């Protein structure tokens, strides 16, 4: 990832929604981006919004430029972090979504928008364009303000055949500002995987830490695992999901046992939930029965020192 310098750059004048950038606005936008090749956005593979002080209205200019200049060679898009009220969020996401829906970033691999002000409205607008990004593998939207409606919009994309090569999906919240993703959307997601309605055969990492999901959703996910519908899943991060209990751990253990061979899953994080050492042992024993080891990180709510797996 490019180094974020301490310099202060000239602000990009906010655009009128839907209006193309003029020459001066385009030059100012280019100065906001960490670009390795040259000053041609069309040829640059990584677009990195380096200035942490950018507002949402200023970042919106990136999507406008992509629509204006595309199709581009863009593979990576990193938005700036920041929890300021006018920080990057829905305007930027919607503008990018419009560009993606028009097929302006056909080679896009990664989208990162973390520690921002993204809500369900912006996420819904962004993900509508993912069907036109056949190479997109990582969607990282951690530490925002998203919930069930945003996740359901993404599920709609999956069910419609988009974003099928996803490898990393990170919708995690944070300790004191949890994402409001609950079983209202997560059960739909996991059940569709279990029943084969949705195929995410390349998914390696699923991160839903610090969300509101509960045992039912994880049980359906474990069923998908047991049926071989998550053949490449290696990491499952559920720390801080306070509604989880030993019931979900038992379901994961049964999912492992249902496979003839041990799944690739090797890293499960269940700290700061209601899962106990007994639940952890259920998962580890199921792996032992397959002749394998699995790391189950469990930091208990009562402050006990976690095992070193």
Automatic annotation (TrEMBL):
A GO molecular-function annotation: GTPase activator activity
Superkingdom assignment: Eukaryota
GO cellular component, one term: perinuclear region of cytoplasm
InterPro entries referenced in this protein's UniProt entry, alphabetically: Leu-rich_rpt (IPR001611), LRR_dom_sf (IPR032675), RanGap (IPR027038)
Keywords: GTPase activation, Leucine-rich repeat, Repeat
Entry keyword annotation includes Repeat: yes
PANTHER family in the record: RAN GTPASE-ACTIVATING PROTEIN 1
Name this protein carries in UniProt: Distal membrane arm assembly complex 2-like protein
Taxonomic lineage of the native organism: Eukaryota, Haptista, Haptophyta, Prymnesiophyceae, Prymnesiales
């Amino acid at each position: 990832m490019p180094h974020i310098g301490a310099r202060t750059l000239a602000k990009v004048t906010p655009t009128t929604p839907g209006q193309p950038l003029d020459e001066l606005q385009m030059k100012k936008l280019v100065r906001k981006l960490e670009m390795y090749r040259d000053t041609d956005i069309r040829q640059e593979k990584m677009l990195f919004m380096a200035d942490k002080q950018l507002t949402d209205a200023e970042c919106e200019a990136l999507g406008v430029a992509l629509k204006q200049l595309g199709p581009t060679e863009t593979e990576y898009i990193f938005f700036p972090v920041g929890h300021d009220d006018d920080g990057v969020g829905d305007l930027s996401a919607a503008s990018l979504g419009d560009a993606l829906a028009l097929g302006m970033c056909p080679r896009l691999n990664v989208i990162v928008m973390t520690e921002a002000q993204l809500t369900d409205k912006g996420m819904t607008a962004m993900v509508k364009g993912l069907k036109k990004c056949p190479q997109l593998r990582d969607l990282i939207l951690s530490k925002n303000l998203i919930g069930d409606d945003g996740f359901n919009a993404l599920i709609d994309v999956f069910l419609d055949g988009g974003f099928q090569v996803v490898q990393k999906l990170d919708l995690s919240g944070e300790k004191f500002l949890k994402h409001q993703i609950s079983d209202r959307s997560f059960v739909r997601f996991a059940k569709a995987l279990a029943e084969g309605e949705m195929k995410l055969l390349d998914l390696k990492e699923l991160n839903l830490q610090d969300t509101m999901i509960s045992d039912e959703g994880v049980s359906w996910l474990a069923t998908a695992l047991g049926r071989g519908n998550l053949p490449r899943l290696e990491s499952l991060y559920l720390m801080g999901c306070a509604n989880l209990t030993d019931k979900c751990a038992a379901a994961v253990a049964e999912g492992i046992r249902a496979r003839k061979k041990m799944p690739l899953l090797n890293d499960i994080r269940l700290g700061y939930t209601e899962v106990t050492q007994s639940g952890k042992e259920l998962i580890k024993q199921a792996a032992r029965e397959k002749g394998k080891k699995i790391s189950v990180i469990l930091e208990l709510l009562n402050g006990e020192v976690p095992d070193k797996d």
